[in-house]
Design a protein that fits this description.
It is built from two helices and 19 strands. By secondary structure, it is an alpha+beta fold. Helices cover 19% and strands 40% of the residues. It is elongated and about 130 Å long.
Amino acid sequence: MKLPKNLQLKKIARAAGLTATLVLVLSVVTIATAQEIQRTFTLVNPTLEHKLNPGDIAEGTTKIINDGSTPLTFNVGVQDFIVSDTIGTPNLLPPNTLDTKYSAAAWIGVTPATFTVNPRDKQVIDYYVHVPLNARPGGHYAAIVYTPVVKTGANATGGVVNAEIGSIFYITINGPITEKSIISKFFANGFNEYGPVKILTQIKNLGDLHTKAKGAITVSGLFYNQSQSLADFNIFPGAARDYQNSFGQTLMLGRYKAELLASYGVNNNLPLTATLYFWVIPWRLILLLILIAVAIILGILYLKKRKKEGELEPKVPVEEKPEAVTPQAEK
């Protein structure tokens, strides 16, 4: 039997309300579950640096802190890594895949290999470094990698991304090395309508050891002179690193000179220099101002011409009407 139209509408409204309530409950449950499985932790020593000779042994400790509300279990290992992009991202490598020229994973041991950290607690990790007698002078790189162990099963709820974090080793082996870096890019748009103007600097390390470029970029032009330091980045052997600097404000005008003066190396005595020029001309704004000025000038000339024509125009004499004569009465 077909229900009346008003009953059908009420039924649909109830179903819609029930569906909305169910969606809201599921959303709350999802948010609560996500909050329950949040896992946050902090590395006390994200970088570990050692300067050693072939055959040396070094020891040390690092820590990891559980900032979350649930216990965390980690597996710990050591892996080589490389940097292949221009923003310094370490890419972990499987065992025995990195050229021994820069590898250090086989030199490093850690203990414990597995541990659990309670909420708001910390775990101390001991490590040792044993450098082979035939180690090549220069930079060698590896990372202590902490992999969270996520328990899954019938009682597990939600989903967890298994992230890896690590403490990076910078190990320098003493001996004769090659230090060589070049400026592979020093670029800004040659013509800009408005500022600020972005300058891209890229420095490539062709040497045997990680390095840092220390220096500044100076931009000078019409009523403008400003310097900015390069960011404090490590550049790994065989890798390039990008630096971004921004100069000026919205309204700029004229030709500008950008000059990079920097240095690098163990003794920070090897030079890096580059120069470029760029223009900033707000041409649309200038064109608009010119058109406004031309319009004003034409308007003034037009008004002057009208006024002059008005002064030269001959005046038409006004005819005077004779006075009406009132006839006098005859005497």
